[in-house]
Write a structure and sequence with these properties.
- By secondary structure, this protein is an all-alpha fold.
- It is built from 6 helices and no strands.
- The longest helix is centred in the C-terminal third of the chain and has 33 residues.
- The radius of gyration is 21 Å and the shape is elongated.
Length: about 130
């Protein structure tokens, strides 16, 4: 584990659960950090796509709430909204990307949940307060 100010608390929790903990200085951890792919980046990218959809809709005169649920309904087929054909195509493309990312995140969450059910070490980690959600 990377040594930092609060890691000793976590290390003690892991030791209580039977894990062997080794603390490493941050400069030794840096080469192993993968900055191009993780759940937080996926969520941030999806939020950015959602914001782009909201911004484009606002530019076209349609204001929707700042929630994921507001993106899911099919606004594009509603002739009441003053959106051009080209604008509808662009929004439909962005909405498809957003829905695809949502589906990927749900699928990966499900895969992780299924894996952790059958893995003893994952079960031990899930017992740590604040770690499992």
């Amino acid at each position: 584990m990377e040594a930092c100010i609060d890691i000793h608390v976590w290390a003690r929790q892991f030791v209580k659960m039977g894990h062997q903990v080794k603390l490493l200085a941050p400069q030794y951890i840096k080469p192993f950090v993968r900055v191009n792919k993780n759940d937080q980046l996926d969520a941030a990218a999806n939020a950015a796509t959602g914001n782009e959809i909201r911004d484009l809709l606002a530019d076209m005169g349609v204001v929707i709430p700042n929630s994921d649920a507001a993106i899911k309904p099919v606004l594009l087929e509603d002739a009441e909204h003053p959106i051009s054909h080209r604008g509808r195509l662009l929004l439909d493309n962005l909405r498809s990307q957003w829905l695809e990312k949502e589906a990927h995140m749900k699928r990966y969450d499900q895969i992780l949940k299924e894996y952790s059910k059958g893995n003893e070490e994952c079960q031990k980690l899930m017992e740590i307060p604040g770690l499992a959600s």
